[in-house]
Every structure is written in structure tokens, then in C-alpha cells.
């Protein structure tokens, strides 16, 4: 699954630089995650780094973008050019 940032986001700016895939960007009101680039840090780290640094715990799994670990790894390989 990709991750999503909820309306609880306080725009603290700590998640964006932690994303190894550049999937996080400033939206109109809060930060947003591009599901096409989010791999939950699979291929980079054992856990999603944005979730680790978020002070308000507002980055859950996105039920609208369900993906297995294998699918996330395939996406990682495409994004990084290893495919």
C-alpha cells in the first residue's frame, strides 16, 4: 500500500526530506504523497521513514492503494532504474 497524509498534518516539514522516492510534496493545504512514487520505503529502509519522523502520527496506509511487498519492491526497482 502507499501511504497517505491525513488532515491532521501540521505542515511541520519533517516528512518531505525523509522520503527516498521524493513522493512527498506540499499540497494546497497540507503535504501529500504521490501513490505512484510511494513504496513505503521498501527497497530503502525497513520502515516508512515519514511515519517514523511524523510528530502527529498522521501518515497511515492508504486503503485506496493496496499493494503487496512484492509489488512495492517492483515499483522501487522501476523508480530507481533497477528494473
Automatic annotation (TrEMBL):
InterPro entries, A to Z: 4Fe4S_Fe-S-bd (IPR017896), 4Fe4S_Fe_S_CS (IPR017900), PSI_iron-sulfur_center (IPR050157), YfhL-like (IPR047927)
An example molecular function term from Gene Ontology annotations: 4 iron, 4 sulfur cluster binding
Keywords: 4Fe-4S, Electron transport, Iron, Iron-sulfur, Metal-binding, Repeat, Transport
GO cellular component assignments: cytoplasm
Transmembrane segments: none
Domain 4Fe-4S ferredoxin-type: 1-29, 31-64
Name of the protein in question: 4Fe-4S binding domain-containing protein
